[in-house]
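Sequence design from tokenized structure. All designs in this work follow the same two-part layout: the structure record, then the generated sequence. An example of the structure record is given first.
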């Protein structure tokens, strides 16, 4: 027949083991919570990166449109032949002279032309 002290000792051992199990479960809960926080942070960073990539993609698409327009204009200028090239050069010369005249007027009069 078990004595009172044996029962108390056995009960103490069982309670000690239960306390140890409870401590391990608490540590595991904290570890899982930290892991979930890290995963949430990674998801948030991934979302920001996706938004940045989408905006960059939009900008590149806009640049592609402009680039294709420039290429089209160059091919049209090449297709115009010698006459087209001379007209482009004359146009650039007219703009250069107009800019020089504007600068000279501004320098001489101290104010922009009327």
């Amino acid at each position: 027949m078990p004595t009172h002290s044996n029962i108390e000792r056995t009960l103490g051992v069982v309670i000690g083991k239960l306390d140890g199990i409870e401590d391990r479960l608490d540590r595991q809960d904290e570890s899982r919570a930290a892991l979930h926080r890290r995963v949430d942070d990674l998801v948030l960073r991934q979302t920001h990166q996706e938004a940045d990539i989408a905006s960059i993609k939009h900008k590149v698409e806009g640049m592609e449109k402009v680039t294709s327009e420039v290429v089209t204009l160059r091919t049209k200028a090449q297709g115009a032949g010698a006459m087209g090239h001379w007209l482009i050069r004359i146009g650039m010369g007219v703009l250069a002279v107009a800019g020089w005249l504007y600068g000279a007027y501004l320098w001489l009069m101290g104010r922009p032309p009327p």
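The chain has two domains: 4-79, 81-114. We note this feature because it recurs in several other targets discussed in the main text.
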